[in-house]
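Subgroup meeting minutes
Present: P.N., E.W., G.H.
Scribe: E.W.

1. P.N. recapped why we're keeping a running log of single-chain structure predictions: easier to compare across weeks, and new members can see raw inputs and outputs side by side.
2. G.H. added today's entry (189 aa).
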Amino acid sequence: MTDLDGGDGDRLALAVLVQYRMATTEQMHRVIAPEVRIEQTQRRMAKLRAEGLVDRITLPQAGRLRVWFPTSYGVRIACEWPELRGRRPPKTIADSTAARLRAAHTLTVTETALVFLEEARRRGELCRPLDWIPEVYHPIGGGEGVIPDALMYYRRGHPGRHRSRRRHHSHRSPERGCYGYSDGGRFPA
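Output recorded in log:
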């Protein structure tokens, strides 16, 4: 298993960015370290960029918003880790123009993930950053399938009380207003 520097924060940041495809500095901060100052997230992202694992674009029309995405090298490294093994790696972004053209949709999907993640944290329920999985293929029969923008796993109830916990997953396509839902039923802690 590849380890960046022994720092779990760097590993989580890269894993999240590979999984989510693209995020602003503020979105990354909300996912990986909301309890610390945003400057720590900014430094972490700059470090990952210096190591060639991530890159960024600046969207001038959005108040010079920085948008981060994983490099092909960062994707290769992170996909070796157990938490991302077996998941389809994202298509890497070739240049800043490609990143700019993908930003609006991808950042909307990322923001949708954050709504669920933050609400789960607020309620004391379990929905971790890597429980949001973009673009999962689901067969629907007859050789056809559907690929929603993301699949989310969420466990309702308090993590310490296994009897009240229920596993749920849903499909998300925010700009289309499409939401599917499945109650996975009760499961032991």
